[in-house]
């Protein structure tokens, strides 16, 4: 988000590059006009020197029409030179304003670039810190998973051992139950025999009592 915001701000300042290009083009135009102006000034000065110094006799040898044409050309050149000087000053003023705007824009651009670099470093530092935290958390999760797997294996072994022990106890219980059933059956049979024997003895005692009464 920070990077996107800063890139948007930098993009908003891209017109500074356009201003640089426009300034270069206008500087080239100014140089061109200055060169033409210098050439025409030189021509005008030469004509002026000729008029002021030694060309009066030469112009006196010319016809009135030729002198008029030369004078008109001279005046025309003078007017063109004045216009060019005006355009030159106007262009120079415009260039100064654009140069001030350009310098201001360059300053803002440099500030934004410096701010962008600082934020980029902060973002990279935050990303690096985030990667470290993620790596640490991944390592912790891996260690927890390994511990969980180890504990799971221990519990599975304990469960298997408990199941085996349960099966052994059930088997022993069934054997003991069968043994107790057999022993109980034997006890019941023995008790029945003992009761039968006691009944026989009681019958015999009753027989003896009856016999003793009869005899005596």
Automatic annotation (TrEMBL):
- The organism's place on the tree of life at top rank: Eukaryota
Q: Which GO CC terms are listed, alphabetically?
A: centriole; centrosome; ciliary basal body
Coiled-coil residues are 74-204
Keywords, A to Z, come to: Cell projection, Coiled coil, Cytoplasm, Cytoskeleton
Q: Would the keyword Metal-binding be found if you checked this record's keyword annotation? A: no
| Major localization class | other
Q: InterPro entries in the record, alphabetically?
A: Odf2-rel (IPR026099)
**UniProt GO BP:** negative regulation of cilium assembly
Q: Where can this protein be found?
A: Cell projection, Cilium; Cytoplasm, Cytoskeleton, Microtubule organizing center, Centrosome, Centriole
Family per similarity comment: Belongs to the ODF2 family.
What's this protein's name?
ODF2L protein
Name of encoding gene: Odf2l
